[in-house]
User: What shape does this take?
Amino acid sequence: MAYVASSPRFLPWLGRRAGSKVVAEGAKRVQFSSPVLPYLCLAPQLAVIFIFFYRPSVQAVSSSFYIEDPFGFGSTFVGMSNYTDILASAQYRGIALFTVVFTALVTFFSLSIGLLLAVKADAVIRGSSAYKTMLISVYAIAAPVAALIGMMFFDQHIGPFVEVASWFGWDMRVGLSYFDTAFAMIAVAVWKQVPYNFIFFLSGLQSVPVAVREAAAIDCGSGLRRFRTVTLPLLAPTAFFLLVINVTYSLFDTFGIIDVMVKDKSANNPVTLVYKVYEDGFRGNDLGSSSAQSVILMLVVFVLTVFQFRFIERRIHYT
Amino acid sequence: MASIDINRVSKTYAGGNRAVHSVDITIGDGEFIVLVGPSGCGKSTLLRMVAGLEEITEGEVKIGGRVVNTLEPAERDIAMVFQNYALYPHMTVRQNLEYGLKNRNTPRAEIDARVAEAARMLEISPYLDRKPRALSGGQRQRVAMGRAIIRKPAAFLFDEPLSNLDAKLRVSMRGEIRRLQRRLGTTSIYVTHDQLEAMTLADRLVVLNDGRIEQIGSPLEVYHEPASTFVASFIGAPAMSLVQAELHGDRLAIGPSLLNLDGYAPASGPVTVGVRAEDLRPAHAGEEALAFRLDYVEELGAHRLVHGHVGDQALVVTLPLAAVLQDEMRLAVDPRRLHFFARESGSRLATAGLPPVLRQQAMEPAEMPG
Amino acid sequence: MQKNRLFDHLVLILGSLFLMVPVVVAFMTSTHTAADIHSNGLSLAWGDNFIETYEKVLTREGGFTGQVTGSRMVMNSFILGIGFAIGKIVLSMLAAYAIVYFRLRFATLAFWVIFTTLLLPLEVRIMPSYQVMSNLGLLNSYMGLIVPLLASATGTFYFRQFFKSVPDELLEAARIDGAGPIKFFIDVLVPLSRTMIAAIFIIMFVYGWNQYLWPMLMTTDERFFTLMRGIKQILQVWIGSQIPDYNEAFALAVLAMLPPVLIVVVFQSWFIKGLTENDK
Assistant: This one.
């Protein structure tokens, strides 16, 4: 499961509804009017949100303009210099580049494998529920657990993957070699995300009306062509939705995987931007820079969300 | 039991959309009133204002002489039956029936007695311990009615209660609602868009269009004396044919045809003439007649509906099976059975014809010369 | 056609293996001794050290301060999962009730205040969140573990959608039946939402159970460690040891994934139905 406490997307059926249907006005023709009760109902939620969402968010933005003394003796206003320092840093740009590559690969592979399995599971009748159970079962495994298991499979002594790699002359050293660690991270991240995509693609496929399938079967003899011209367009909403989810997942929810796999030794290992926020903030005690990085990530999330609401949800209509 | 007075009631929604325009209805104690009209005519809004589910923008609603404008629905002493039944799905039938009484702190023994009585009356005793989802549509509708009658309210409000039932069940439930209301003598307001339902149930009909009352009257009054072209075309199936015509004194010109009105004509000028399908008959030789061009025929078994044109205007006529059908036919009509409406406003024009009471008596089946 | 089916099955079997084998191997390997694993590698066969390993993991007091056992971590994970789920349901049901069923003066404002939280994940405001908790003195407490995670609108959003799908007429009927807002909530809305509450409970439980970053920051006192925190711990401990406690690491992983995996498998029809359900 995800880490993103505030993302709507980790609830399977929520994200899809989240889109354009966010309307502010009341839903009911008839409503109660009571001077106190509704505010009492709202109070706990609002209190928690103000203390633990708005306050820290505002603080993140404001402290991104300061340099804080690591020992807690005051802070100095530095304007945009935290941002310019970050953007000028070769290390930060390297991490950003890795994050982009990581996100692209994880998204691509987990989406493709999920789609392939869903199409096949939709096609077979015999044993389909057994396949479904097996394919869904690892859905709820936490990222650090997935990473721990992954670590074992890539372990220097006992890891079968290391052995397999050595047959091809690949001396795999996960945790030591930048490339090998990245490979393992991507493999684990994909492994963890496939069930999620599978569930969505399968339900997308199964919501294609029988009549449409039958009409397609009559109109188009070739299975592959039918898939490309009928099924795939109907799956487009699901696919676009999952695209955003998978990007968000790769950016944020993989923190547990990365943290477990680099084992606090990020020196020569690939990490993503979120990990860097955590590392600079908690271990480097560089609050200003960490906050500025947070704000940059906020902007990324914001752009993603706007993208989702504006382009995807509007362009695709669900039947 | 109570009378209901609706005095100059209007509804304006936020944004200025006016759903009901200054409506006046006086409903007698024990009367069964049906509000009928097309969707969006404001009939449900009006009902919901009586129920207290919708705020009254202007005017006054009195139930049993008491102004209820600011009262909660529960305080208005009314019961409502909804289109989708609105049964509480997690409660058994018995709990559904009891809920309103319990909230009013009715004594247990009284509740039990009333549940038993309502269940017997509606023949739902065997289902009392079932959940609504285990019931058929008709049974659910009975439970919904049970929930209304158990409260012994001053008035029943029905909001299209039969729309979710299939055609056959609708007819039998219709009869049942009427029987029940007669037996209990409870004042009722019933909303429907189905004119047949309205005709068969009502003591008096209120025909609404665009938030205004078009006509109030008994079913026969409304059928035979429609106050406007809207009512004329809405009430009755097949719909009354409405054709544009010119009146020259006593002569009526419909397309190429001319009819003599024997003194039943209103003032000269352009008019809309309405004629019910059953009021037309094949003309005798030499009689003044409409030149009718047949388009197609609907067989109804006992008789036929024949669709065609007079000039370029559509007309429907009911003909007995014995009548000979031809592509070109001549149709005659008793001038007293024509309805005249102002061309512009669509409102009914007074004729020198029979007074309404006599008009109705003149409606025995027209002879059909073979 | 027949050949195609065979190919389909092949793909599915490969996919299932890809996803399932690591889990099975993790479990099977955890039943071997560390030395056994060290010399023979991962295993698909049942070992003979199951009871010893799990007993040790669950009861041995480990960590730096020697104050935490596996069972303590299991308990903490349950407290986090259940506490989070209950808190989420209570907060969000009440808030959604207010938004959907009441005429509010600041309805639009409240709506946006709540739903803006959907925009920003916890990760991007983790530092200041930590500072807030630290200022409030809530570090190393269950309250501090659970409450900040509640600061999101997912549950509210979900209940709002559900309440909107409840037919208006039920509220109208209830009002005619003389039920006020509190009575309607308790007598009608809560019982109606039972299935939804259960589904959301399960999802939120899994979510809380699987929390990693937040507990890691919040808990330096080992008595508050959850299983996820323990996993990080065990990896840190074994750096530098001759024969790492592979078996114990696997056993911990198995304990950490068992409840969520069981829940998803048992309630999978809910998860899938949840996906395909439209707002009606």
